[in-house]
């Protein structure tokens, strides 16, 4: 076997390995894009959200049709992190609300919720929730919309008050109050 044959074979093997890796990368990218589109469509169906940008934000934040119920707790998460930290009592209040919504500890919604409780979520999460609530509100009659708004604000207020304050004074911090106002503003 001549050195030219050996080098030619080696060059061909390297080229094949390179193109195989490139093809695998392109296939992985294609699978990821298809999974993203599937999640987006699943979320569109489950939530009724039609805004593509809002759906993209939700998918990028890990929200899917299976975890949509966790999205309803975003206002509570928003208030809990308003002052930069999630107090243990705030965390417990959020988890109690999750249990009230039927979120089981081993579910995908619960796992997503745990990530939001462990570290402050990207602010885009609240923006996505706001877009969701605007879409939902537009499909409700005024009485239903008012009831939804009052329920969400009551749960968020409970989380805000759960951290306490000192001797019952100043139970809701200025940052938490601002967060409550942002939640209320999402309905306008």
What can you tell me about this protein's structure?
By secondary structure, the chain is mostly helical. The chain has one domain (3-185). The protein contains 9 helices and no strands. It has helices at 3-47, 52-60, 68-71, 74-80, 88-100, 108-118, 124-138, 142-162, 174-185. The longest helix has 45 residues, at 3-47. The protein is elongated, with a radius of gyration of 24 Å. The chain starts with a helix and ends with a helix. The model has no long low-confidence stretch (mean pLDDT 83).
Indicate the topology:
Blueprint: H1 3-47, H2 52-60, H3 68-71, H4 74-80, H5 88-100, H6 108-118, H7 124-138, H8 142-162, H9 174-185
Helix pairs in contact: 1-2, 2-7, 4-8, 4-9, 5-8, 8-9
Distance between the termini: 80 Å
**Shape descriptor:** elongated
Instruction: Classify the secondary structure makeup into a structural class.
Output: mainly alpha
- What's the helical proportion of residues? over 70%
Major β-sheet, in short? none
SSE sequence, one letter per element: HHHHHHHHH
Count of helical regions: 9
Could you list the spans in which at least 5 consecutive residues all have pLDDT below 50? none
Strand % is under 5%
Count of β-strands: 0
Number of domains: 1
Oligomer: single chain
CA radius of gyration is: 24 Å
What is the average per-residue confidence, as pLDDT, rounded to a whole number? 83
């Amino acid at each position: 076997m001549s050195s030219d044959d050996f080098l030619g074979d080696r060059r061909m093997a390297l080229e094949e390995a390179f193109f195989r890796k490139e093809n695998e990368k392109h296939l992985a990218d294609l699978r990821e894009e298809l999974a993203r589109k599937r999640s987006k469509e699943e979320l569109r169906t489950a939530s009724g959200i039609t805004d593509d940008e809002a759906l993209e934000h939700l998918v990028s934040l890990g929200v899917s049709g299976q975890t949509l119920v966790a999205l309803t707790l975003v206002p509570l998460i928003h208030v809990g992190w308003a002052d930069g930290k999630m107090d243990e009592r705030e965390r417990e209040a959020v988890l109690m609300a999750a249990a009230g919504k039927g979120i089981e500890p081993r579910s995908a919604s619960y796992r997503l919720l745990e990530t939001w409780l462990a570290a402050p979520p990207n602010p885009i999460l609240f923006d996505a929730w706001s877009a969701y609530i605007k879409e939902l509100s537009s499909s409700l009659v005024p009485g239903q919309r008012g009831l939804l708004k009052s329920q969400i604000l009551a749960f968020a207020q409970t989380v805000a008050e759960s951290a306490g304050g000192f001797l019952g004074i100043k139970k809701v911090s200025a940052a938490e109050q601002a967060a409550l106002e942002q939640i209320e503003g999402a309905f306008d």
